[in-house]
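Data deposition worksheet. Section B asks for the primary sequence of the deposited chain exactly as it was used as input, without tags or linkers unless they were present during the calculation. Section C holds the resulting structure in token form. Section D is free text for depositor observations; keep each observation to a single sentence. Incomplete worksheets are returned to the depositor.
Section A, Depositor: J.P.
Section B:
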Amino acid sequence: MSFPRASGILLHPTSLPGRFGIGDLGQHAYDFVNFLEETQQTLWQILPLGPTGHGNSPYMSYSAMAGNPMLLSLEKVQAEGLLHVDELTPTQVFPVDKVAYDEVSVFKLSLLRKAAERFKGVASDETKAAFSQFRVDQASWLEDYALFMALKDSNSGVPWSEWDDAVAGRNPEALNRARVDLATDIFFHEYMQFEFYQQWGAIKQYANERGIQIVGDMPIYVAHDSADVWAYPEKFMLDPQTRNPSQMAGVPPDYFSETGQLWGNPTYNWEVIKADGFNWWLQRIQSLLAFVDLIRIDHFRGFEAFWAVPAGQDTAMNGEWVKAPGVEFFQKVEAELGQLPFLAEDLGLIDEAVEELRDRFDFPGMKILQFAFGSDHLNPYLPYNIDRNSLIYTGTHDNDTTVGWFEQASDYEKQRLASYIGAFDPISVHWSMIRMAMRSIANQAIVPLQDVFGLGSKARMNTPGVGEGNWGWRYSAVMLTPALKTRLKEMTEIYGRARDQPKS
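Section C:
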């Protein structure tokens, strides 16, 4: 797939402003799209949109195909006549600079339950017909997801592997009984997904109409405690007795961690997945393409070979590399879905085989400027060493902010950076790095919004290997100043990345 010269901003919707303790899909999301349009950006990169589980991580979702109800705009629901204005007044003051996940969940879910009940009587015939069609169109995943979430609620939130054996094992009679007993809760979860698809779909359309593409994120693995693993246990490496992972995903020791990263997700049973023509994966990609225009494949190297850690390990040190059917998989996806809108997250321990898989399908790889100054002139992340078919970042959601990185960088890195840039002011290191990304030959340059603001480590989105305290950063609308917009727009234009500029 051909990618023109462009630039964009990395920002997850949870980081948007708003008065309900978390960014949502209301007016501030549209304001952010307007900001992208004003500054001549073409790309809005987000993190996975699924309902989050442990640690509020978007990479540990209860579903690979559902949307996160916590992102729903209560104001939009109220505009549909399903909530009253006075009900939107929080009983507490939410912080404006971070997400208060626990408090937000209680507040929002209570109101969304009211909205779901009122929907049955208040919604127009046209809206009810659209909901019925949505249930038909999304039945391949929605039925399992809504039942899974209803069962999880009725089991006090414990993982599905600890449920009653008949339900955990998907005994048909037990599931039919649950569908009757939990009908109200099942409807509630279906309703929230309908609202999510409507609200996010409207934002995507608004962005696309302004020449802005959504770059989505597809984690290679899904959470063990998810509707996907519960519904299709044969597709994952599980212990048949405990139903827990018999083989866990992760990565060996690397830049981010001396003991590696043990994610805990079950690895795939690729033999079973191949045998049915990769159908679950095709369904997953098709569902994601309803949300986004381009797909960043997180941990792309896992499609060539993945790090498998036996059950019972506390770290990822004692694992082994296992081959995956990457070529067959992408050939199948291309045959079924056409041109592949994929971007490859190819960071970490990448060998020649991974590069060959990426290049065989012409997927752009990722280059991180924060990695460029720790060695010599051969460093693959230096702008003059990268390929044109790349995405270049100052940093990603897994990195510190550029200001935070610079403050903690070694003297060697600071000296290399200063020598590379020439005239250099440490106070504006973030703009120096943004300029470096923008002027590079990489087809696409993406900058976290925190770096545009020049924020320090407190604005970091995620610290890999740390299970709590991540994913909370938010900005305030007043931070998008006219001066900042002008500076970003001018830099975008001078390096030929502006949306309205002719492309060669």
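Section D:
Residues 139 and 295 are 23 Å apart (CA to CA).
The chain has a mean pLDDT of 96.
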